[in-house]
Amino acid sequence: MDLAALGLHHWLDEASDAELDQLPFGVIGMDRDGRACRYNQYEVRMARFEPAEVIGRKFFEEIGRCMDWHGRRTLCTGRTACGRARLGD
Question: Could you count the other beta carbons within 10 Å of the beta carbon of residue 79?
Fold first, then answer.
């Protein structure tokens, strides 16, 4: 599924934390340095990390190392609501 084609990444950038918490999938927003700045409640339930354990930490280095396949951070596309471009921009 091409999230960019759906325009979902634009909605995610503008969504409030309360709106993100209502989604039926996990959302982790990261800044250009890979630090988590958004983390919704679905992700809390699935990963069993509280936002305070994740926010501000380098996600692919400290939290989700298994998600950084061969150095390709494939989950990062578009912008984030952190006010900076995502990794690879």
Answer: 16
